[in-house]
Amino acid sequence: MLRDRIDRIHALCRRLCGNDADAEDATQEALLAVVRGLPRFDHRSAFDTWVHRVTTNVCLDELRRRGRRPTVVARLDAAPSPADAPGTTLDLPDRGAPVGDVVSDRLDLDLALAELPEEFRVVVVLRDQLGLDYAEIAEVLDLPPGTVRSRIARGRGRLADLLGQGHRPGGNPGRVADVEGTER
Amino acid sequence: MNDDRSPIDDELLSAVLDGAATPEERALVEASPEALARLEQLRAAVARLAEPVTPLDADVSARLLARAMDEAPPASLAADDAAPVSATPVPAPDLLVGPVRRDELAVRRHRRRSWAGALAGVAAAVVLVVVGVSLARVASRSSSNDSASSSGSASATAPADGSSTADAAAPTAGGSAAATSLAELGALPDTATVLARFAVLEASGADFDHQFDGSSRGAGSNEREQATASDVSPAPSPPTTCPVPPITPAPGESWAAAAVAQLPGGPVIVMVDRAGGTGARVLVVDATTCTVLAEGTT
């Protein structure tokens, strides 16, 4: 049951946390929370909805506990290679672009997401990363569907603006930490 | 596109992206070059966000799953050790028996791959058998004491969605369904060996109860309890059926499924009642027929 869902849990955590290490930690915590919460899962919502709720809560709580926005971590020496273990490197889409550009793109996205207010970040990730519809998101977050729709629109708008500005470290409240190594 | 600059705002454009706009709204957008440009910006942002996250490596996944299963503390179903996490309002969960155990046991099936089919089925069916056997014993004594099962029966112990437990972590009055992992005694020749093996395990102090005391059985949960074990057993398991009528636990009774084992005749469950204070009563229960095969003490 969890095995079938761990990738989605991790994807949600990855987008909400902003880096692989935090995402892995949050995924672990989410799995534990699901296991611990199963006996009290009341079936008033779909199981996947409940898992998304648990995961979202855990990820946001992890961020709050650390008292910060998502921290974007880049390891430029961690360009894709078969030997690299996912979860410790940036996941880089193969679009034929130079590694540096792709890393920058990914940084842009992570940084832009990190700058989004939490209430916008969560809804756009649930909608556009996980593909939940408005009603599902409303149930996950216990919000009216109209609020969800509005937040998605505002979140997308902010995200588009941030990405359109060529988001870079230093020009935003999102943090870049541990930019290590050199590009190969 | 700001709301105060155009009647076509991001919310409308977002609705267009999601296919939620009306034909009239779409036409309005398509008639505006500015709106179309903004639409493309939003579409690009959505496309970026939709890029899949690299799945976890299989080894990492296995490690995370294993830890989730193995490091869930014995009292993990109680509220007081749950991580304080919060984000959204949470509907108060009920303390359920049947469906909840089904999910939990399904998780356990993943964990216990070393045990092929039969014991996995046992683990999946144990909840219903426990309830059924408890009922049988209770019914054999007295059916007059209904009040013991009602107090604290449907109390929520903690949010089930990982949300804040700071204000919702009140322990269940009168006890809780504190479930932990079941011990696996392995393939054994007979019930006497099962009892002996379990006694050794009990003496070691292992905490492995899957407890169902009277206080955890709530009024209103009868429909769930009437589910059959075939609902939760994997396909290879026999269609075990243990119909469970309303439960009336005797005061002080606290039977727990503690272990599973495989006898030549089929899987069995070891149940224990430690409520007596001096030692524990132990039953070996046929997981298929829900009958008591042997009884002992530790």
Per-chain topology:
The complex is a heterodimer of chains A (184) and B (298).
Chain A: H1 6-17, H2 20-37, H3 47-65, E1 71-75, H4 99-115, H5 118-129, H6 134-141, H7 145-164, E2 175-180
Parallel strand pairs in A: 1-2
Chain B: H1 10-17, H2 23-30, H3 33-50, H4 58-70, H5 98-111, H6 117-141, E1 183-187, H7 191-203, E2 210-213, H8 222-225, E3 254-263, E4 266-273, E5 281-286, E6 292-297
Parallel strand pairs in B: 1-3
Antiparallel strand pairs in B: 2-3, 3-4, 4-5, 5-6
Protein model, in words:
The complex is a heterodimer of chains A (184) and B (298). Chain A is mainly alpha-helical and 184 residues long. Chain A is 58% helix and 6% strand. Chain A contains seven helices and two strands, in the order H-H-H-E-H-H-H-H-E. Chain A has helices spanning 6-17, 20-37, 47-65, 99-115, 118-129, 134-141, 145-164, and strands spanning 71-75, 175-180. In chain A, strands 1-2 form a two-stranded parallel sheet. In chain A, helix 4 crosses helix 7. The longest helix of chain A has 20 residues, at 145-164. Residues 75-97 and 167-184 of chain A have low confidence and may be disordered. Chain B has 298 residues and is an alpha+beta fold. Chain B folds into two domains: 10-50, no CATH class; 62-297, no CATH class. Chain B has helices at residues 10-17, 23-30, 33-50, 58-70, 98-111, 117-141, 191-203, 222-225; strands at 183-187, 210-213, 254-263, 266-273, 281-286, 292-297. In chain B, strands 1, 2, 3, 4, 5 and 6 form a six-stranded mixed β-sheet that branches. In chain B, strand 5 (281-286) and strand 6 (292-297) form a beta hairpin. In chain B, helix 1 (10-17) packs across helix 3 (33-50). Chain B is rod-shaped, with a radius of gyration of 26 Å. In chain B, 47% of the residues are buried.
